[in-house]
Structures are given as C-alpha cells and as structure tokens.
Amino acid sequence: MRTPPDSEHPDYVAGRGAASAQVPTRFGLASRETDGDWRDHVAALEGPPPKLRTTVTEEKPKTILSFNKSPDVPFDRSINAYRGCEHGCVYCFARPTHAYHDLSPGLDFETQLFAKPGAAKLLRETLAKRKYRPAPIAMGTNTDPYQPIERDYRITRDVLEVCLETRHPVTITTKSDRVTRDLDLLTEMARQDLVAVAISVTTLDPVLSGKLEPRCAAPSKRLVALGQLVEAGVPVHCSVSPIIPAITDEFMEGIIERAAALGVRSAGWIPLRLPHEVAPLFREWLDVHYPDRAGKVMSIVRSIRAGKDNDPNFFSRMNPQGVWADLFRARFRVACKRAGIGTGRKSPKFELDCGQFRPPEVGGQMRLL
After folding, report:
1. What H or E segment, with its residue span, contains residue 335?
2. Measured between alpha carbons, how far is 193 from 195 in angstroms, rounded to an integer?
3. 46-68: string of b/e by CB count within 10 Å (b at 16+)?
4. How much is the pLDDT for 364?
C-alpha cells in the first residue's frame, strides 16, 4: 500500500521535523499511542486539533561548562544554552538527549524546550576559579545557540559578552543567520583571535530545507550570513552537513561553489548520523516525504555504516567507509579544489588565542594582578 505523502500522513504535523512523539524504549518509559478513532471523533465535533505550540521551561543548573574526553572532537568543553531545539532538524543527533527528561526525542525535542538564563553568571563564576585553565569553548555542539528563542532570551549573547570581557576564545556552530545580530561582539572578538564561526548548509533547495529542517533559516539566508561574517573579518567555516545520500548529496558541489564565491576558505562535511531514537525518526520522515526512495536512502546509509543504521564508535562515526563514502569524499575534494577552498593539510587553521585570558572576580570586577 502506498504511504501517504506529506500532509496526508496521519502523524504528520505541518511545520515540524519529526512525525511522531514516541518516547524511547531504552529506559522502560510508558509508550504513547494515538487513538485514531478518538481523534477523528473530536475533529468531527470540535474541528481540527489546536496547533502544536512551543513551550520553554527555564532551568537553574549549578554548572554551565560541560567537559568531554572524546578523542575525535576538537574541543574539550562546551556550553549549551538550551535543551531541545525548535529548528526541528529531523536528523539531529542530539534528539536522544530529551529522553533523559522522560520526553520524546521526536516532537517533544522541538516543542518542549529548556533555557538556562543564568548561563552567563555561571560562566563568570567558573572562569573566576583559580584552577581554571582556558581552552576554546564550543557553542552549538548539541543544540543550536541561535535557535528562534535566542531572539528573546539572548543567552548566547550574554555568554559572548562574558567571553569578550575575559578574553576567552569561543567557537560557534549554527544553522541560523541570527548569528549576525551579534556581529558587533563577533567582530571585536575576531580582531583579538577569540572566535570562529561555522554555519551548516545542508541543501540549496528551500522546499527540501522546509521538510528536513523546518524552522531553520532558509539556505539563502545562511549563505548571506556567511558572506557578512567574511566581510566583517570573522573566521568562518561552511559545514556541508549532514550529507544524506540520495536526498542532499546532489547539492554538495553547489554549496561549496556558492560559499567560495562569498570568500569562505574553509569547508567540511559530515555524514548522516542516526544514534538511538534518531534512526526510527528518520525512517518515519522518509516514509512521510520520500516513500519512493526510502529503501535506497537507508541502503546507502547502512552501506557506509558497516551494515547498521549507525556507528557510535570514536573516529569511525565521523569517517564512514565503503564505496559510497569514498565517492562523497572524492566529490567533496574535487569541488573544493575547483572552488579554491583548501582541504586536509591545506585547509585554513583557526588558531584562537588563549593567552589573553583575564579571570573575572565573582562580583564582576576584573583582577588587577
């Protein structure tokens, strides 16, 4: 039987990435089931169900810096100003983190968000500790620091203000052109070698983007943001990721060409990752939007992941193997060469300066000595 496309699918929620709100089975949580008969009855009497709204819960954590010892990531500390992400990227590898709140990595992840308004204060307290030693803080490693609610909360901006004041280096990864609203801070930080920004561009097709990452900035806006950062002298990197076989890989060369024309000289790609509950969510998404090629997509994904939906192992999780992986790698390398963007050892290195760091006092006053 043909799977209904897009809005005809019974679980599809317009404007959202995930097609369901199932809770994970890894933790033995009670499952959720939608009673179709009840829903049809209510719709007949009261009309369609109310629009799914985004809610934000404010958190008061005791710490804000998260440290890691992962050998295949280039940072050892990060700040996540928000839990969950309204961008709704169906492929987001951070979705399973919502399971720790007994919430769905699906629709709950993109509609029930958590914000940390005290992040800047906590960061100041951490940087003031005498045993603290600076190293670049990564922002955007789990959820996007410039997702829509940043417009009102401005937590990311508050954190950047502390980092500029204390001369602490930061790296930022985002899918939003909202990053340019902090261009005043970023320009000054770049002048002191304290910041580098990566913007992810997944596709050049706004219709596909609307399905894949429904509340992200349009691809054209992200490219404009890359150009604005280049003009402002901020070190920028274009991340062509994730590469989704038979869905987004056709745009690889075009994205690199467009980015290079804007003056971007650093680019990279990351293959699709489907940890834990992301795999079934992505399969649902394929059934909703691309039922005709779902089998092909997952066949290629499994071929580069040693026959599995996902490879969680260090190094290999970022370095897929097989014929298809080699093809993507070769295409990316050739595209960068044609566009004048360096790869491998020829890729520009963003060396951030940790030597300027000035620890603050907890009360906000800088140390004199």
Report:
1. helix 323-339
2. 6
3. eeeeeeeebebeeeeeeebeeee
4. 47
Angle formed at CA 174 by CA 169 and CA 179, multiple of 5 degrees: 75
Question: What would the two tokens of residue 305 be?
Answer: 């992941």
| Residue 291 burial by Cβ neighbours in a 10 Å radius (0-12, 13-18, 19+) | middle
Extract the tokens encoding 292: 């005709």
Region label for 191, one of left (φ > 0), alpha (ψ between -120 and 50) or beta (otherwise)? alpha
Give residue 21's pLDDT band: very low, low, confident or very high (50, 70, 90).
Answer: confident
* Cα–Cα distance list, 364 to 148, 359, 369 (Å): 29, 10, 15
Distances (CA, A) of 100 to 25, 79, 81, 215, 317: 12, 18, 17, 24, 23
- Tell me how many degrees the CA angle 114-120-124 measures, rounded to the nearest 5: 140
**Short-list 27, 16, 18, CA closest to 101:** 27
Q: What is the pLDDT of residues 68-80, one digit of tens each?
A: 988 988 899 999 9
Full-prediction pTM beyond 0.70? yes
- Cα–Cα separations (whole angstroms), residue 181 to 173, 198, 229: 15, 15, 11
Could you tell me the strand order of the sheet in which 82-83 lies? 55-58, 112-115, 82-83
* pLDDT, mean of residues 359-367: 67
For residue 250, pLDDT over 70 is answered with yes
Average pLDDT in the chain: 89
